[in-house]
Amino acid sequence: MHLNLSVPLDCVSVVHPERYKKPINQEFFPVLCFDQKLRLRLLSRGKFVMEYDNYQNFQNHAVAGYVSGTNAGQLRWEYKRTTLEALSPGDQVLLTPVKDAVPTPYWLDSEDPQPVLVHREAGPTYFLADQMSQTDKVWIPVVIQKDGSVRALRNEGIYVDRGTDSAWPSGRYSVDIVGGGGIGPIVDATERWRFEPYVIDGEVVEISLMIPFTKDGHPWGQW
Fold it and tell me: How far apart are CA 221 and CA 33, in angstroms?
């Protein structure tokens, strides 16, 4: 490994992750290791490991000069910093949002803390269920608003994920809620869900989320 292992590290991980998520997916429970200056030096998800080295202080931040990703001990990629350059006044202007800019909801990665569900509802069996297998799922895109209420994106990316036992070829198939499919009641059910407000850096924000349902209208997976 490229990392200087002589550096003392303190590592944190979740004990008994099966209490929080079943089945266990290592991506949701990484091991994080920090040096004595609280700089991230190692992130491990099962066989996948990311290493951070050659830190340099820049504008009140510690920036890693070398980052690598290995899988099962084999180097897959690496990043080497060459130059750190402050933004010029002209760059700052380009990065400033226009007055009528509308902020987009924050999209959660798998490593991010997941929203806390307060209330959920199943939807009725829908028309498409007759054409679905047990492993097929319907995914509904939603926005969790700042008060924890849910707004479904009714015409923006609803799709059916066909499973291995489907009569159709495996893959994603878009669903037009206006044109048919009978999934309107499922979408209505998602808008009756409630979450705790989601906070990032001390500020309540809106977040985007995909909620999956089975063919009988029940939420699937962690929901």
Answer: 29
